[in-house]
Amino acid sequence: MAALGVTRLPLMLIEPQLAAGHLVRVLSQCRFDGPSLYAVYPRDRLRPPSVQALLEHLQFRRAPRQAEA
Question: Is the pTM above the cut of 0.70?
Answer without folding.
Answer: no
